[in-house]
Automatic annotation (TrEMBL):
<dbReference type="InterPro" id="IPR028098">
    <property type="entry name" value="Glyco_trans_4-like_N"/>
</dbReference>
<keyword id="KW-0808">Transferase</keyword>
<dbReference type="GO" id="GO:0016757">
    <property type="term" value="F:glycosyltransferase activity"/>
</dbReference>
<dbReference type="GO" id="GO:1901137">
    <property type="term" value="P:carbohydrate derivative biosynthetic process"/>
</dbReference>
<keyword id="KW-0328">Glycosyltransferase</keyword>
<dbReference type="Pfam" id="PF13692">
    <property type="entry name" value="Glyco_trans_1_4"/>
</dbReference>
<dbReference type="Pfam" id="PF13439">
    <property type="entry name" value="Glyco_transf_4"/>
</dbReference>
<feature type="domain" description="Glycosyltransferase subfamily 4-like N-terminal">
    <location>
        <begin position="14"/>
        <end position="173"/>
    </location>
</feature>
<dbReference type="InterPro" id="IPR050194">
    <property type="entry name" value="Glycosyltransferase_grp1"/>
</dbReference>
<protein>
    <submittedName>
        <fullName>Glycosyltransferase family 4 protein</fullName>
    </submittedName>
</protein>
Length: 387
């Protein structure tokens, strides 16, 4: 099968959507499919052989963050050229409701279109206002996927229609087989994310840190991710700042080793999350997880059975839970065991097969069975137009 995948966000700025698309493309390539990914990228960015650059992205405020997107006449021309050259059996776009390559592809593409919706935002005024512009493009989509029930709910409430829920995928064994790094072991708590993006929650963790260190002065906080380390610790008492170690950006291999090494992984994110891929990666690596009680996080953690939850933005609740877990190795071992079992449902062997079945359904519909002749139950599960 010739598969085209459209990435809305800049390839050279790491994020959950980009990682999902990268791993999905490589999963299909391993299965023998021909895959091309169209993504924004700076001209000097080294790209995998399957990625085609749509040009430089620009920063745009989106969903409580700043996304680097690509949109405009030049981008539209590159989309059309990519579609023409690719002659794809199916095109899979991500975030088609954002001002990005996905929306441009909706306008330009002919043939089977699959769309994945990642955003969870129950009060998106921008999406409501843009509905009339988006409607014509979204009507061309053959099947819709949402990465979580909360992303599906956002889609239903703002744009109508429905979607099948297929979560983000992870190569579970890649994380499970990583070797711990000795210098990252020994009473360590970990955080991975953009440290200068408030919704990732590092300020909440920093506010909780003095209380954690008062109870367990030997504990260290390890932080991996881009951003200003000095700004991150400016509200910490000076004598405690040495207990926070900033590693900067880390490779995929070191991320896996990081998660295999820490005694407790903390995800203090405050909102705007539709899934929580870092939680799946942490569980894959065997790290006990403590996360804010966002709806999407609770779902990934099996409502607290596979990882513990604390009240969102409550630094005292975070500190109390972290201290209790650090002092209870048996509870951490229990979470490690439950997380390792629960996470298997997110492995690419399951997630990739589910996405491929969607592709096969919509491509079969164009070659063998007319769309209106598909079974109604299947049409509903794939988010196809209602009868």
């Amino acid at each position: 099968m010739r598969i085209g995948i459209v990435c809305p966000y800049s390839w050279d700025v790491p994020g959950g959507v980009q990682f999902h698309i990268r791993d999905l493309a490589e999963y299909f390539i391993r299965l023998g499919h021909e895959v091309s990914v169209l993504a924004p990228a700076d001209d000097d960015t080294p790209l995998p052989p399957y990625v085609v650059s749509a040009g430089r992205a620009v920063p745009v405020p989106y969903n409580g963050s700043v996304a680097r997107l690509n949109f405009g006449f030049l981008s539209a021309a590159r989309v059309r050229r990519w579609l023409h050259d690719g002659a794809f059996d199916v095109v899979h776009i991500h975030e088609p409701s954002s001002p990005s390559l996905g929306l441009l592809t909706c306008w330009a593409a002919q043939g089977p279109l699959v769309a994945t919706f990642h955003t969870s935002n129950p009060r998106s005024k921008a999406m409501i206002a843009a509905y009339s512009i988006l409607q014509a493009a979204l009507e061309k989509i053959s099947a819709r996927i949402a990465v979580s029930e909360y992303a599906r709910r956002t889609l239903v409430e703002h744009l109508g229609g429905d979607a099948v829920v297929i979560p983000n995928g992870v190569d579970v064994d890649f994380f499970a087989k990583a070797e711990p790094k000795p210098e990252w072991q020994g009473d360590t708590i970990g955080f991975i994310g953009r440290i200068d993006e408030p919704r990732k929650g590092l300020p909440v963790l920093m506010k909780a840190l003095p209380r954690i260190l008062a109870a367990r002065p030997q504990t260290r906080l390890l932080v991996a991710g881009r951003g200003d380390a000095e700004e991150a610790v400016e509200n910490l008492p000076e004598e405690l700042r040495s207990r926070a170690q900033f590693l900067g950006m880390v490779s995929d291999e070191d991320k896996a080793r990081f998660l295999r090494s820490v005694d407790l992984y903390i995800a203090p994110n405050t909102g705007g999350e539709s899934f929580g891929i870092i939680l799946v990666e942490a569980m894959s690596a065997g790290a006990p997880v403590l996360a804010s009680d966002l709806d999407a996080f609770a779902q990934v953690l099996d409502q607290g059975a596979a990882g513990e939850l604390f009240a969102n933005e409550d630094a005292d609740a975070l500190a109390e839970a972290a201290i209790r877990l650090l002092e209870d190795p048996a509870r951490r071992a229990e979470l490690r065991e439950r997380g390792s079992a629960h996470v298997r449902r997110f492995d690419w062997s399951t997630v990739g097969a589910d996405i491929l079945s969607v592709y096969e359904t919509v491509t079969d519909g164009t070659t063998a069975v007319a769309a209106d002749e598909r079974p109604p139950g299947l049409r509903a599960r794939l988010g196809l137009a209602r009868d």
